[in-house]
Amino acid sequence: MSETNPKLRAELEGIPTYKPGKPAAAGGPAAYKLSSNENPYPPLPGVLESVTAAAESFNRYPDMACTGLMNELSDRFGVPLSHLATGTGSVGVAQQLIQATAGPGDEVVYAWRSFEAYPIITQISGATSVRVPLTPGDVHDLDAMADAITDRTRLVFVCNPNNPTGTVVRRAELERFLDRVPADCLVVLDEAYREFIRDPEVPDGVELYRERPNVCVLRTFSKAYGLAGLRVGFAIAHEPVAAALRKTAVPFGVSQLAQEAAIASLRAEDELLGRVGSLVCERTRVVDALRAQGWTVPESQANFVWLRLGERTVDFAAACEQAGVVVRPFAGEGVRVTVGEAEANDIFLKVTEAFYKEL
Fold first, then answer.
1. pLDDT in tens, 124-152
2. Which run of H or E residues covers position 154?
3. pLDDT of residue 9
């Protein structure tokens, strides 16, 4: 038998692997998962019923055009149907965006550290990542990002709030940045955590997109809406970009279960906003407690907090797991910790209190 293997694309060599949040081990000490920024609440009213009804016909292909969901999104955001595209979570849509804009010889600019899928989906396309370090306060350095744009730059990601730091860029600085970006370069405002923002100076990306043809907004149903396991996200962009996204979408990628759940979730927004408000209150409690213990914590506008721990990161994550909560470590940098159930947050705060005294 020949030992020659099929030829694969060179771009796949050394590609980083996406690391999902570690689950709480069955029978282990960790009872709470605070590693994936999931919503701790059960499905919103009406959602489970919609999914159950849709499950009766999952021997059939879903509506590839996501007609019902697209109509709902069009009404909800006041945008034309032709400006919408769906995908398997916002990360799926992000990959479609790169497929539509960048290939070998092109560049994709993003802050670092930011969403860990960006380098993966960029490398898969054959494009080159241009990583711009965050400021010392763990915020996007938009001036440096604008300086990094060249005639090879095809796309810029601005994750707002930023994952994993929870920090935001505000209206004046974001508009100044957008004014500097060439009109033929696409700026993607990744707003996966939009619903958790309480800072009035952070603009809604949909407002910015309306007047700027090179701005695309990413949203997801995975976080605030609690549909992480169903994989449905969407983009709002002007027609040429949205049309390209529909061309690069995996056929039938968004299941009918996901479509019906998303529609039901949009119709239960009052309940959703109440749950998000409770999580924001918990976020405030957690951040205040951490600062009272002595920690320096960036102001988070997402459903998680960021602790810079450097070389102690892995040790801290191990201490949390032993105490009963799983967090998301970024070795040598820090940990991202989801704001979850009050009981889980209390366990986390006990670990931080003891750990800080050892620093």
1. 999 999 999 999 999 999 999 999 999 99
2. strand 153-159
3. 82
Show Cβ contacts of residue 252 under 8 Å, excluding neighbours closer than 6 positions. 61, 62, 64
CA 174 – CA 307 distance, rounded (Å): 25
The amino acid sitting at 159 is C
pLDDT of residue 320: 97
CA atoms within 13 A on the CB side of 35: 22
**Number of C-beta neighbours around residue 125 at 10 A:** 21
Phi, psi of 84 (to 5 degrees): -120, 150
The residues pairing with 107 across neighbouring beta strands, listed in sequence order, are: 128, 153
Number of residues assigned to the chain: 359
Q: Is the pTM of this model over 0.90?
A: yes
For 11, residues 6+ apart whose C-beta sits below 8 A from its C-beta are 104, 123, 124, 125, 126
- Indicate the pairing of strand 304-308 with strand 334-338: antiparallel
Distance CA 50, CA 187 (A): 35
**Pair 308, 138: CB distance under 8 Å:** yes
SS3 186: strand
Residues of the chain with pLDDT under 70: 1-2, 24-30
All structural domains of the chain: 21-43+268-358 (3.90.1150.10), 47-267 (3.40.640.10)
pLDDT of residue 7: 83
